Amino acid sequence: MDNLDQVILHAARLGNTEVLEELINRQVNVNTQDDKGYTPLIIACYNNQYNAAKLLLEANADVNASDFGGNTALMGVSFKGYSDIAELLISYGADLNKQHGNGGTALMFATMFGRNELVRILLKHGADRNLVDVRGLSVFDLAVQQGNEEALIILEEQ
């Protein structure tokens, strides 16, 4: 990884759009990965940097790129609860049903961590509530396991 790759990753973490714009203009790889497989988009999204994420997406960052564990930006924001960034990612074609290394999906993360607004958003856009993880657990099972009664209601309504 060269120095500019490290700079774009750091700028994404901080949401420094001026630096990101300069690096994009210099044609630095917007899909570079760090030692864990995190891309600038994944980092920006996980750190709630909406404007940086939008800029990276406009520069053709891979909305479905995953880290070395199979986690995507959409999974990260579903875990963190960032509804606005989830909508942004979905508008750029984020795969709602992509499964990470253990079979978890963005919908499963949102359910497990009580991010019920994300549960609504993901279902509204067509997330599959019938997928199961490597243990054979569905999003319904995870909601029960976590005591997330609101998610169970949302899952049954939508």
From TrEMBL:
Domain of life assignment: Bacteria
Swiss-Prot/TrEMBL keywords: ANK repeat, Repeat
UniProt keyword Acyltransferase present: no
Protein name: Ankyrin repeat domain-containing protein
UniProt xrefs under Pfam families: Ank (PF00023), Ank_2 (PF12796)
SUPFAM superfamilies in UniProt: Ankyrin repeat
The keyword Repeat appears for this protein: yes
PROSITE patterns: ANK_REP_REGION, ANK_REPEAT
Database matches in SMART domains: ANK (SM00248)
PANTHER family the record matches: ANKYRIN REPEAT DOMAIN-CONTAINING PROTEIN 39 (PTHR24171:SF9), ANKYRIN REPEAT DOMAIN-CONTAINING PROTEIN 39-RELATED (PTHR24171)
ANK repeat residues: 36-68, 69-101, 102-134
